[in-house]
Specification:
single chain; alpha/beta; Rossmann fold; about 35% helix; globular
Length: about 240
C-alpha cells in the first residue's frame, strides 16, 4: 500500500539534499514492505505558536496514540515559526532574502510510516489562515509526485472565537484540499459524528473548558487512528 514514489525520490525532488543513508531506518522499512508501526502527524496552522489550535491538535494526537500505543507514533508540527511562501508552488523562484521551511515539513510527510494527517487552523473571516492555505498549496508537490498522499487518512480541526464561528466552514475547506490528494477523509466519528473537530476559544486561550469541542477533537484523533490502523498496520483487528 506504499506510494510508488519512495521517500528518497521525493526528498530528492524537493532539493532537501537527504539520501537514504541519512534517513534513519528508511532502507529497513522499505525492504520490509510492511509497517509494524504507523505514524500520524498533526499540523497546527495558526500563526500563534502553542495556542489553541496547537492545543486542539495535541488532544487529537493523544487520543490517536491511545488507540494502540505500541503501534502508533504521533508528531505535532507547529507551523507558527516557519516560513512557507505560497508563491513557490507557481514555480516562481524563491525571492532573495526569503526563507523556505516547507521542505523540512514535506520530509516528515514523506516518511514511509505516515498513515494519517490532521490539519488544524483557527477561523479567520470564515476561512482558514493564510499559513494553512500556503501549506496546503505547497503540498501540491505530493500530488505531482504520483499522488504520494493517496490512501493516507486525513482529518481537519478548526478553532473559532465563538461557538458557531465558522469552524465547519474551515474544516470543510481543509478537507476539500485533502480530497484532491485522494486521501481517505474521516470526521470526528461517534457519538458526535460530523465533519471534524470544532473548538471554541472563549478569549482565554484555554480550550479545556469547551467540553463539546474537546470531545470532537478526541473523537477525530481516535477515528483517524482506527482507520489508519485498518489500512496500514499488519494484523489490525479494526
Amino acid at each position: 500500500m506504499d506510494s510508488p514514489v519512495s521517500r528518497r525520490e521525493f526528498v530528492g525532488a524537493l532539493g532537501v539534499g537527504a539520501t537514504a543513508a541519512s534517513l534513519p531506518g528508511l532502507a529497513a522499512v522499505e525492504a520490509a514492505g510492511e509497517r509494524s508501526t504507523i505514524k500520524i502527524v498533526g499540523l497546527s496552522c495558526s500563526p500563534r505558536k502553542g495556542k489553541t489550535t496547537a492545543q486542539g491538535i495535541a488532544i487529537c494526537l493523544e487520543a490517536a496514540k491511545a488507540v494502540d500505543p505500541q503501534r502508533i507514533e504521533t508528531e505535532l508540527i507547529d507551523l507558527a515559526d516557519l516560513d512557507i511562501p505560497a508563491y513557490v508552488v507557481a514555480k516562481v523562484p524563491l525571492k532573495a532574502g526569503h526563507r523556505d521551511d516547507f521542505p523540512q515539513v514535506a520530509e516528515t510527510l514523506a516518511d514511509p510510516k505516515l498513515a494519517g494527517i490532521i490539519v488544524g487552523s483557527p477561523v479567520y473571516f470564515g476561512n482558514m489562515t493564510a499559513l494553512c492555505k500556503a501549506f496546503l498549496d505547497r503540498c501540491a508537490i505530493f500530488r505531482a509526485k504520483a499522488f504520494a498522499l493517496s490512501g493516507k487518512v486525513g482529518g481537519a480541526l478548526a478553532v473559532g472565537g465563538v461557538r458557531n464561528g465558522g469552524q465547519e466552514l474551515v474544516v470543510q475547506s481543509i478537507l476539500h484540499a485533502l480530497m484532491c490528494h485522494e486521501m481517505l477523509i474521516v470526521g470526528d466519528g461517534r457519538p458526535t459524528g460530523h465533519w471534524g473537530a470544532t473548538l471554541w476559544n472563549n478569549g482565554t486561550d484555554d480550550i479545556s473548558q469547551d467540553e463539546f469541542g474537546v470531545a470532537t477533537a478526541k473523537n477525530l484523533g481516535r477515528r483517524v487512528a482506527e482507520v489508519a490502523l485498518a489500512r496500514f498496520a499488519p494484523g489490525s483487528t479494526f
